[in-house]
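Researcher: Next entry in the queue.
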Amino acid sequence: MSPLLIVFIALLVISGIALIVFIMMHSGKGTGVSDAIASAFYGTQQSSSVVEKNLDRITVICAVVFMVSLLVLMVIYPQGSISAQ
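Model: Structure for this entry, 85 residues:
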């Protein structure tokens, strides 16, 4: 396995796990983990919107890293031609 392959597979796995975690932290209708964290730290409703915005940004970044690493792996190894040499 080449170092490039190892790096992109690690990026794919880490960003996929992070994506699952951050999506689960989003609130549905004001009763999510992010609202509980925001109310514990700030105690106001205005601050929860700041936490939601940061959570949105982190989620988008994780999604972009996931997609880029997936596309790079698809270009480098188009037919799943990874061979253990």
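Model: Residues 10 and 69 are 9 Å apart (CA to CA).
Researcher: Noted, moving on.
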